[in-house]
């Protein structure tokens, strides 16, 4: 009986897998992309924020752009 239920589970499992396999690969990446913007790219965010606080936004353009680039790589549209 266990074999029958396992066999019944296998076709159900194998049917979505080929369809979801490409999506599964994306899903493995999507949890990273589904991060909240506040939690993405902490390294560039810390440096950017410290620079803005100490020097003002107009003096930190390269760091701001570096953080935006990191966010884009994480899948955010900035």
From TrEMBL:
The UniProt record lists the keyword Signal: no
GO MF annotation, one: copper ion binding
Pfam families named in the record: COX17
Keywords: Acetylation, Chaperone, Copper, Cytoplasm, Disulfide bond, Metal-binding, Mitochondrion
GO biological process: mitochondrial respiratory chain complex IV assembly
Superkingdom, taxonomy of origin: Eukaryota
Compositionally skewed regions (Low complexity) per UniProt: 1-22
InterPro entries: Cys_alpha_HP_mot_SF (IPR009069), Cyt_c_oxidase_Cu-chaperone (IPR007745)
One cellular component term from this protein's GO annotations in UniProt: mitochondrial intermembrane space
Cell compartment(s), UniProt: Cytoplasm; Mitochondrion intermembrane space
Region spans: Disordered: 1-31
Gene3D superfamilies per record: CytochromE C oxidase copper chaperone
UniProt binding sites for Cu cation: 38-39
Complex formation: Interacts with COA1. Interacts with the chaperone CHCHD4; this is important for correct folding and the formation of disulfide bonds that stabilize the structure.
Role this protein plays: Copper metallochaperone essential for the assembly of the mitochondrial respiratory chain complex IV (CIV), also known as cytochrome c oxidase. Binds two copper ions and delivers them to the metallochaperone SCO1 which transports the copper ions to the Cu(A) site on the cytochrome c oxidase subunit II (MT-CO2/COX2).
Family designation: Belongs to the COX17 family.
PANTHER family in the cross-refs: CYTOCHROME C OXIDASE COPPER CHAPERONE
Protein name per its UniProtKB record: Cytochrome c oxidase copper chaperone
Source organism (scientific name): Diaphorina citri (Asian citrus psyllid)
